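Possible regression after last week's pipeline update?

I re-ran a chain I had predicted before the update to compare outputs. Posting the input and the new output here so someone can diff against the archived version. Not blocking, just want to make sure nothing changed silently.
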Amino acid sequence: MGPHDHLTRAEVLALLPTSPSWPSRDSKADRDRGHMRLLNAAKLLDWLADHPGDGWQERWRAADADSGKEVVLAAVLGDDQSESQRNGLVAGLNCLMMSRIVLPGYAFLRGYKALRLFKDVQQTFPDGDLDTMRDHGAGLGMTPRHVDEGLRLVSAMVLHTGRDLHELTAEDIFHVRALGRRLRGEAFIGTHTAWELLRGVGVIQSKETLKDALRFGQRPTAELVDSYNIQSTGIRNVLVRYLDERRPGVDYGSFRGLVRELVGVFWADIEAHHPGIDTLRLPDEVVDGWKQRLVTYVHSKSGEVKERRGRIAVMMRVRGFYLDIQEWAHEDPFWAQWAVPSPITRGDGAGNHKIYKQTTARMHQRVRERLPHLPLLVQTAERVHREAATLLEAARATSLNGIFEYEGTSYVRELLKVNQVPSRLDHGSPHVYIRPVGATGRRINQSLVEDDAFWSWALIETLRHTGVRAEELTELTHLALVSYRLPETGEVVPLLQIVPSKSNEERLLLVSPELASVLATIIKRLRDANGGKIPLVARYDSHERVTGPLLPHLFQRRPYWQPQVMSEAAVKHRLDRTLEATGLRDQAGQPLTYTPHDFRRMFATEAVTGGLPVHIAARILGHKTLTTTQAYLNPRELHQKGEKLQVAWSRGETEGVHSLYELAS
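New output (post-update):
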């Protein structure tokens, strides 16, 4: 509730004229406006007074006023509403909200669209804070439109909470973001901007962006285990201690997988079907029932029952859990009371080789289905980007509100409006907006269309020429480009440094002329868009749940005002968008899909069939054993052409390499 929630009707009406946004009394017109505001505020108070509640805020809720402005107007004015009556009542309602008699909900304010109200709120900010926020936003690269979106949300927070600007907290941002995601599936427009603006005036004392502040980071073992609500305290403590022992030897992503399988898939399922069990010594019928349930699982999103392909791996994890405890019991008395025979026998893993062969066969089938279509995918990515870039250039060459033609279609170039005010166009926006002439749909942000098309092309080209993992792709930086002088000939060749990831081993890849051209194009694009420099951006590792240092990442983009390193999900999304444009279908008639790892398998197959020895391919791919590399390869397509390494350096294909040398320096 607001600070004036329990004032009487007369006290409220006496308070309203003290608001900073109240009309002056210098002229009769201003005095008349003030008088009309009081009359309309009185109407609203009388309407609220007819509803139950201890205070104005409870009456506001009882009247269901948060359902929207139209609900309030209809209740007070009835069906016969003139424009002047509506405007007058809105002015009276503004007064009640500005004076914090009622605190409207965020959903109400989103639909209210009273821009004058938000401007009035901003005039109550401490001296200089509004200008400071605007300057801070501009310094971060925000356009006036982005700044205004953030300021509107800050104003809404002031109105909703009933607090002054410097009384707002980070929790208020977290709350409004959570509410937006619950109501519309995503945060309200301006949420991230509002966070930055509040940081700019010291309201939020944090050096992190909102995205960073929302990340949980690596969680304690006990917290991960407790998320499964294990009922037996003894078993819960054993699991926590065991997992703490195992944690230092694995990466965080693998550790979470271990927790999920031991705690969630194994013990939580045992407890769900056998409440009260508190011993690791499981009867045969309990173990047999669990093994049967392990065969399938229910998909979390679709609810569909599916076969669990990794069930034997889960059983081997459980077996390892029991065997580790047996071994540790010889050295630590704690484990002695929990050392019991493993319910999973060596024979339970007998089918592992069969599952491995089935998995390998599926990988080979994916390569057979996708490798023949790779040229079409590459051509489509090039064509889509070329068309998007040509359309963007045509739009840029056209004046505002001008009409131009492309491929037989007429377009008009437009600008976004700031606050939907026709007289306030977002001239600071770096984006180019177009709309087909005569179309009534949403305008097209052709800058983003071209940007998406470019990065889709760059991703596909880099993946197919390097065979790197998706995580390794997003980790590539300008610093990863190094050179090496061949001692025999003195020739300098470019190399691409792949930082340690899954295998925790660093490796170097020879940069082919084609890859050199792609990397040079990426570097030039980033420099051209950022004043000759590649921005330093921190990358968030979603597997390790940590944010890395500021580095000149190559696969970064600026969709709005914040440069961001692409996530692995964004990589997959851009692949899917390009595949849609190809129209490719699988044997079942469904859209053909590619994953980044499919490019890795195709790279390995093409390299070995082209004459590259398997052991060298394993080093290039970062595999520790030849077995892993051999599983990637399709025996039907492997025709070794000898043990001689064939390097595809063509005298006529060195232009990309020279460009890369110039830009890498």
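Follow-up from reviewer: compared with the archived run. The radius of gyration is 32 Å. Marking as no regression found.
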